[in-house]
C-alpha cells in the first residue's frame, strides 16, 4: 500500500514516485500546509499557480513537491528549472 499525503482535497497519493513521498515523511512533514493543500493538486494538473503566503508556510514545498513528482527519471534531459530572485532564497530551495 502506498502512503497517502493526507489532507489533500482530491485524494492525492503520489503513487508514481514512492521515494518522493518517503523523503517528505523523513523530513518530518506529516500533513500539508494550507498553501500546499491548495496548490499541489493544481500544479500536478500542469496548470500555473500564482499564490501568496507568509514566510515559513511551505511555499517552496508547494511548488517543489509537484515539480519533483512530474520529473520522468527515464528521460535524460533538463525537465525543470527553478529561478528565484535572491541568493538567500536560492540557498533555501
Sequence-ordered SSE layout with sheet pairings:
Blueprint: H1 18-26, H2 34-44, H3 59-70, H4 87-92
Description:
By secondary structure, this protein is mainly alpha-helical. It contains four helices and no strands. The N and C termini lie far apart (30 Å).
Distance between the termini: 30 Å
Q: What order do the SSEs take from the amino end to the carboxyl end, as H and E?
A: HHHH
Number of helices, counting only DSSP H or I runs of 4 residues or more: 4
Rg, Cα atoms, Å? 13 Å
Helix share of residues? 40-55%
| Residue share in β-strands | under 5%
User: pLDDT average, as an integer?
Assistant: 81
The best one-word shape is: globular
Sketch the major β-sheet. Answer: none
Would you report the number of β strands? Answer: 0
List keywords for this structure.
single chain, 93 residues, disordered N terminus, Helicase ATP-binding domain-containing protein, nucleic acid binding, ATP-binding, P-loop_NTPase, helicase
Provide a compact summary of the structure:
It comes from Champsocephalus gunnari (Mackerel icefish). It holds the Pfam family DEAD. With 93 residues, the protein is an all-alpha fold.
